[in-house]
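Extended Data, panel c. Modelled sequence:
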Amino acid sequence: MDLELFYGFLLIGIVVILPFLGQTIYKKYKELYIRNIAYEDRDERFEEICSNLNDEKIAKVEQVRKQIRKKKIFKNMAFIFVLTVCSIFNINYEELTKTMPIELYDLYKNAHIFCLSAIQFGIPLWVISTIIKSEKIQKYEKQYKNSILSTFVNLYDNNFLYKTEIEMKKRYQMQCEYVENKFWLNAAGGIDYIDVQNNISSRLKNNTMMNIYDIAVQKYEDGGTSEGEIFFKGTYIVLEFNKLVATFVRITENKFIARKNKVELDSSEFEKYFDVNSKDKILAVRILTADVMQLLVDFYKKYHLTFEIVFRDNKVYINLHTEGTFKIPIYKKINKKQLYLYYAILEFTTNLSKEINKVLNEIEL
C-alpha cells in the first residue's frame, strides 16, 4: 500500500512539474531562436553602442550573476540528489523490509515516511521556489537594469530616459487605455491590474512623445472578487503625436479578431500576416501607406514577435508579445547579444514614429 502511495505521489509530482518544464523549454527555445536569427543581421550602430558600454560596471554585475548562478545550481543539484535517493529507497523498500534486522524496522519505516513526504512536498516546493524571486535575485536585476540597460538606452539616444519604477497615477492611466484599446480580448472578465516593470520615455526629434513599457497584465475572476492569472507579459508602446486623427484603426494577427469592419488593402503580403479593422476605412488606407505596411511586415518576419497596434485620436498603441525576451540572464554570461532586441524595438519604434509623422503631415483632415 505504501508503495502504491509513493507511485501516486510521484505521478502527481510529474504531472505538476512537466507542464512547467515544457513551457520553460519552449520559451527558452523561442527566445534563443529570435535572438540568434536577429543578431546575425546587426548593424554598425549597435556595435558602436555596445563598444561604449562601461566594461568595469558589466564585470561587477557579471560577478554577482555568477554567485547567484552557483547557488541556484547547488540548490537544484541538492534537490535532484535528495529526490533520487528517496525514490530509490522507496522503490526498494519492500525488498529491504524482508532482509532488514528487526531492530532497524522502526528506523526504515520512519525513513520511508520521510522519503514519501520529501517527494510529495518537495517537488511543489521546488517549483514554487524556482518561480518566486529571492531578494538577492531582485537586487541583481535592479543592478543589471541600472548599470547596463539604463546606460545602453542612453547611448542609443541621450534624450531617452530609462526608469524602473512608475508612479501609480501613470499605471492607472495605462490600465484605462489598455481596456479602451481592447487589448484584453483574450482575458475572461477583464483587466484587474497592470504591473509596469520598466519604462523608456523620450520626446523624439519629430516632437512625438514616446513611452516603452515592460508590463504584466492580470485578469480578474468571479466578478472581480478573486485574483486572476497573468495573461500577458510583454512590451507596451505608446506614441503621442501632435496631430489629432479622429479615428480608431486596429491591426492584429489575421486569425485573432472578427471580420467586422475589415479593411481591404493593396498589399497581399501585409494581409497574409495582419487584419486591419476600422469604421473609417478610407482614413485607415491613407494611414497605412506602403512604407508603413512594409515596416510592420519586416519587423514581424525578422523577429517572429506577435503584436497588435491601435491608432486612436493622436496616439498609437502597440502591444508587443515579448514574454521571456527581456528576461535578465542568470545562467548565461552577460553579453551584447542579450541587448539586441532592446535595440531592435527602439529602432522599430523610432522608425514607425517617423513614418506615421510623415503620413500625418501629408493628410488633410
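The longest strand covers residues 226-253. This feature is highlighted in the accompanying rendering.
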